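Q: What residues go here?
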């Protein structure tokens, strides 16, 4: 088997990818400077489902405002969500906030052992391994989208990578191949190879240090692996929001602590069959695509007085800059209110 050499000699695999990373990998990312457990945790949660180039300015702003775990634990929800707005997948911000409070108030310090890291709210197997690898330079297997793609091609693994059976195989490989110590550069090598060489499309196989042992490359199956997940039709949902001004202020409502845009401020939302929409003027519409459905939003201006909904508050233009708003809502407000005289 083409890959048996790496399976029987994991040290060869580690040496190969580490040597490559030293000269061709990414070594100047902001979270790589002073890789404390806190900085690693923040960066890893930001990087979930988000490109590195997008994360960099958010990470830098976050660290200016909340430079350590104690500052985050003491911060209020609005501060946290305002720093996160625009990154999407806001559950990550809530999990990060919960994690900081748990570490400070329950543990007293950042844990070192994998099992202890896994007790932290919002910290899964990958993030725990990343903290061990990058912050402590210790044994910490990692499997994310980049590593899944790399391993599936290298070892010719069939099946959807996120399926239970394939996921189990990939983690077993990570356990086998990960060095027991001095793991920081090895872990970075896996992520760099997946992100910059073994890319989803237009993989740069000729530059890959693993190409002589890669089953997909040597059998012409790079485009076939990993196995694609069957596509599902994205449903469309309607959303109706109220535009209510009072002088120089706009009425906003705090979203529930679960569901889309949880804990963010937004325009008050009403059901499409509510009477208020029968006496309202359509101000505009926009679309926004979530991971699981497409939102078709309509903004309505009531033509008669409206009782302030529970959890609502008035904000002027300056105050709007200091709170967390969903990106599409903020964009609409900026275009139709903030940027108008």
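A:
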């Amino acid at each position: 088997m083409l890959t048996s050499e790496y399976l029987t000699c994991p040290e060869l695999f580690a040496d190969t990818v580490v040597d490559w990373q030293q000269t061709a990998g990414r070594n100047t990312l902001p979270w790589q400077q002073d890789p404390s457990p806190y900085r690693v945790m923040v960066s890893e949660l930001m990087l979930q489902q988000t490109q590195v180039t997008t994360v960099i300015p958010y990470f830098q702003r976050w660290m200016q405002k909340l430079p350590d775990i104690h500052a985050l634990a003491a911060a209020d929800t609005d501060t946290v969500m305002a720093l996160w707005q625009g990154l999407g997948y806001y559950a990550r911000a809530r999990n990060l906030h919960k994690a900081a409070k748990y570490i400070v108030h329950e543990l007293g310090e950042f844990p070192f052992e994998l099992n202890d890291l896994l007790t932290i709210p919002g910290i899964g197997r990958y993030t725990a391994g990343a903290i061990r690898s990058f912050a402590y330079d210790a044994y910490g297997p990692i499997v994310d989208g980049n590593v899944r793609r790399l391993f599936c091609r290298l070892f010719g693994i069939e099946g959807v990578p996120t399926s239970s059976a394939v996921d189990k195989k990939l983690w077993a490989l990570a356990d086998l191949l990960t060095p027991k110590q001095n793991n920081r550069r090895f872990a970075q090598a896996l992520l760099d190879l997946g992100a910059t060489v073994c890319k989803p499309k237009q993989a740069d196989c000729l530059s890959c240090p693993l190409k002589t042992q890669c089953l997909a490359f040597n059998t012409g199956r790079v485009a076939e692996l990993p196995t694609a997940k069957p596509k599902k039709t994205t449903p469309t949902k309607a959303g109706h929001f109220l535009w209510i001004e009072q002088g120089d202020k706009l009425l906003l409502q705090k979203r529930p602590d679960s569901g889309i845009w949880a804990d963010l401020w937004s325009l008050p939302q009403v059901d499409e069959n509510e009477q208020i929409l029968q006496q309202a003027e359509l101000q505009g519409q926009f679309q926004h695509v979530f991971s699981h459905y497409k939102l078709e939003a309509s903004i309505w201006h009531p033509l008669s007085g409206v009782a302030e909904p529970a959890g609502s508050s008035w904000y002027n233009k300056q105050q709007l800059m200091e709170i967390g708003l969903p990106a599409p809502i903020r964009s609409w407000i900026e275009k139709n209110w903030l940027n108008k005289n």
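A: Context that may help when evaluating the design: The mean pLDDT is 93. The chain has two domains: 8-142+162-185, 236-338.
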